[in-house]
Design a protein that fits this description.
The longest helix is centred in the N-terminal third of the chain and has 56 residues. 34% of the residues lie in helices and 22% in strands. It has 2 domains: 57 residues; 188 residues, no CATH class. A hairpin with a 4-residue loop joins strand 1 and strand 2. It is an alpha+beta fold. The strands form 3 sheets. Strands 2-1-5-6-7-8 form a 6-stranded antiparallel β-sheet. It is built from 5 helices and 10 strands, in the order H-E-E-H-E-E-E-E-E-E-H-E-E-H-H. It is elongated, with a radius of gyration of 25 Å.
Length: 256
Amino acid sequence: MPEASQPRQESTVRTLVVALLVAVCCSLLVSLTAVGLAERQQANRDRDRMNNVLAAAGVENPDAIDLRIVELDTGEYVVSEEIGHGTYDQRHATEDHTLSVDVPGDEDLARIGRREKYSYVGLIHGEEVRIAQLILPVRGQGFASMLRAFVVLDADGTTVQALTVYEQGETPGLGGEVANPTWLASWKGKKIYDEGGSVRIELVRGADAAAEHQVDALSGATVTSDAMTNLMRYWFGDSGFKVYLERMRSEGSGSG
């Protein structure tokens, strides 16, 4: 009996080994497929997002956009092996302390904690290759989620042409209205800065439609409305795009 059981034991071991190898191979295949699909899905989301921005800005030709990377502290464009179009991951830059800076609590209007040193910007060219519009990414903590948006500015660097909130998880029917196309359309023509260069844009309940620095606040969503005011004031202040926009204005919004 013991002699007969040994082949059966060896057979059982071989079966378990084969089953384990099959399981490992299948797991590896599923993982590789998931990674491949994730990259493709992210690319599709990015493409859809950019198409939404172009539609909001009234741009029909994607080739009209020149995507650049700007150093926020200096307002200068940068190109390097690490900080280059196609290699720089802005969303995850805040997780790398060499690519981001801590935002002091008293300055953190947008409640982001850390701010990337470099940001993508989109330049929409008009006639004679002059810059007609700018696309700038902004974000800030809302009531229940991180609000992420693109602001499209005219060449003057202060007049809002369009606003697209592409990611939010606020309360449906309340703060969730931050992504309502009708409300977003009310931003068109509003001014970010006053004549002295101070950030003046704000959300106000019952705002006068003719008030160039005011947007009507979201009904029943005070926290989300305040968050939109604060994130705009942060990203267009000294720690955000202000230095870059001042440089663009001083250069006359030429070819860039």
